[in-house]
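Suppose a colleague, Dr. K., hands you the sequence of a protein chain of 399 amino acids and asks what its three-dimensional shape might be. Before reaching for any lab equipment, you can write down a predicted structure in token form. Begin with the sequence itself:
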Amino acid sequence: MGTETTKLRHERIDVADVLRGFAVLAIILLHSIEHFNFYSFPDTSGQSVWLNFSDRAIWDSLFFLFGGKAYAIFAMLFGFSFFIQHDNQRMKGYDFRLRFCWRLLLLFAIGQINAAFFTAEILVMYAIVGFVLVATCRLSDKWIIGLSIACILQPTCLYQTIRTLMSAEYTIPGLDTGSFWKATFAAQSSAGFWETVKVNLWEGQLASLAWAWDHGRIFQTAGLFMAGMLIGRKGWFRQEYLSGWGYILAIALISFFPLHGLNSMLPDYISDSNLLTPLRIIFSSLANLCFMLILVSGILFAYYRTTKISYILSGLIPYGRMSMTNYVTQGIIGSALFYNWGFHLQVGITGSVLIGIAIFTIQYLLCRIWINHHSHGPLEYLWKRATWIESPGFLTRQK
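The predicted structure, expressed as tokens, is then:
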């Protein structure tokens, strides 16, 4: 009890910044080979066999390693950060929930800036789904675990699966987003800057949010937010809890391969799309979750148990502390490189991943310089200052 009354804030946990830095690096590499959601690639029929092999190997390897996993790490850390902020204010006797609602509205605005350049950005979705943290932050651990698992198990897909099995006439509802994607692709291919921004902010946003719903990202994100909040509450990122991550690693390893294998086999045995679609979302999201936990536990063990690798991973701390700045600016840079309003580069997969590495390298060097003189990145600082604008209604005493 004495410790809680004298300690008025949590110490920063460096490994969380390592994980953030790792996640944003992985996201940049994936977005680069996707040409930042602009799937326009040069004709590769005339290039060498080795370059074709390189393109295929890079694409398959990066999506196997990071596809659906890097964003999941980022989502889990969002919930973890909420807990730190909420609990810091609780220890001072304040209720942070209303202030966090304002913070989510600010995040929505930042997401709109990002969406003006990049159609597949996630901050707007985070701002919408983030209210689940406000609604659940005072629940018991058992309730949070139950709700998190319920969301991660994809309740909508489970319902669709059961309805399909019960009735052959049932058809799963779908969102018709074809016209939105066509509009964004046309703007990326041929429009100027302002027309691209206009399309991105309307058709691009609708298409992105609809894609997230159709692919189970909304429920999975909510579940990961709550899981991250629970990790913060229990202190599971601290070194003394590392043994628990050993059990998580073992369970994730045992679970990943059958889930991944079943997901790959389903199209060979199920032809009904009303059954196949929700089942593949369930199995793929669970497989990605297991692989994400393998990555996270591996990084935690390497950081806390291996001196040399820990030293290397620590280099990601400045990059992770500026994760929002890096995430938003990589979308701006990428759209300028690949969209028609910018340089409209026509580069294959191998060249694209090299561009992604170059973007990361430049950002990383700038982060090292910036963090030597500032405690926060530019966007992180502005978000924090705007969060804490003076308003007597935003912070209230605990009830």
